[in-house]
Amino acid sequence: MAELLFQQFSRFTRDIYSIRSMDKFFAQSEQQIARMLGCACCTIYLLDSDKSVLIESLAVGNKSSDLSANAEASEVPLGVGTVGTVAQTGETVVIGEVSKDPEWNHDMEAVQSQICVAMKVDSETLGVIDCRDPHPHLFDDELRILLETVAAAVAARLEALLWMDELDRINLTLVDEMSLREAVEIASEVKRTPFPDFPKAASERFLRAIDFVEEGFALWDNDERLVMLNAPMRELSGLPADILKPGLSFEDWIKKRIEYEQIPEIGSERQKWVATRVELMRSPPADPVEVQRNGRWYKLQYRKLDDGSTVQTVVDIDHQKAVEKARNQFTSTVSHELRTPLTSIIGALGLVHSGKLGPLTDDVAGALELCKRNSTRLLNLVNDILDQEAISAGQLRLDTEPTPIAQLIDDAVDLNTQYGNASGVSIKFTGAKSAFCVDADKRRVQQVFANLISNAVKFSDSGQAVEISFRLEGGLAAFSVSDKGPGIPDEFLPMLFEPFEQAERSDTRKVGGFGLGLSITKSLVEMHGGSLTHSSGFGAGATFTFTLPLAEG
Predict the structure, then answer these.
(1) Number of domains in the chain
(2) Fewer Cβ atoms within 10 A, N terminus or C terminus of the chain?
(3) pLDDT digits (tens, 9 = 90+) for 192-230
(4) What is the pTM of this model?
(5) How far apart are the first and last CA of the chain?
(6) Same domain, 370 and 240
(7) Residue 266 half-sphere exposure, CB side, CA atoms within 13 Å?
(8) C-alpha to C-alpha distance for 34 and 138, rounded to whole angstroms
């Protein structure tokens, strides 16, 4: 969260600081602010030279719906309405429901949420940023902090643009295109801050904003010296405030943490351990590193920025590790205590039922068949649970290879025909055979087919057919499984691919199953780089279609 906020704000600031045209600056600022906040409309107002009227610069969004402030007027008197009041007081105003707020109701039926923030350089107000949306309660504290931070950056850049316009007006030239940082410092007369690429006010707001996120966050410059860190990182470091000051080297950071016994597990390998951590920061791996400190697990990651500085994040994953351990123990128990004996039981029942151990009466044969069927049903549940757990934990791996489409379809029909025949339902392929191949794990694709076909059979009446079809969609092969059953109720569609969800939930439901098949099927298809969709009319059957990428060559 902290890194995302840093990147979002940094990208916005970098973009607007590269603009010299005033019109383009306003247009791009309003567009990016509206996009960052997820609101329908953003308008920037500027105070005129007399400081008595706010003049609308540009407006983006749906002005015809009266979302933008004063859609027909371009000026707002100081102290009038939300925009004028914010410009006068300098205080942010956030309205959750405009239509229900007696103080700020402007007879704007299309507007529900509104936030107005003053653009200030030091104590001087240059204008107001006004954002609006038709949905109520859009702007929470996080968006307020973000907009206040952005407003400080916009104000500083605006001041710099005005300064550069004035220099152009009197025919002065900026030597080597004076850096934006220098222009901002001259225009707003701010001192250098621990976050030098941002204006002072923006830096201060940004520092306060990232203290709200849960993970630890630190920024190190290209000389490996501390620039800034947030409150969670200060707490995680275990170091006193007088040490955690800008300029602290990363190596000294590590050594101080060892000195203050924050890393007791390193033992006597202190020098080697420090060197390893410094190298990790200098050449960070793509994936986070999991470390254990004082009995708790953390996820540590370093990322290099374009200017050579380094972002460091630390996330407490101790709870996640405990859940992962419990999951592994559960999976191990299910596998060894249930699947293994069930497999043996099913094998023994099959051997006895075959008559190879002696003749059986009809009653005994029927009882054995019932036991075998229910044992197989339970084994299928165990296998589904293990697959679901492996997918959730990211531990299921595919072994893909170019596989003929015709072979996949033929195998799907052959392997599921006996299951269909037991219910009086035929399985057939409709259409022409294809010479193309797909990149597929054959065993897992057959599992996808088996899940879809078994569902179709369960919801089909005796004498009906389940149809498999195929078509090409660009670089994808699309496979469809259709039935003529009752279809899927509309109220169940949002839960269709959720685990343990079934359209029939009563204890007396006619169709068996545990509600894991479609969830697993969707995950397996997506792991292949495809997608799973459905179409259904209640009472008119259902069709499930999944895609797989075509093999190259």
Answers:
(1) 4
(2) C
(3) 344 444 445 555 555 666 666 778 888 898 899 998 888
(4) 0.42
(5) 42
(6) no
(7) 19
(8) 12
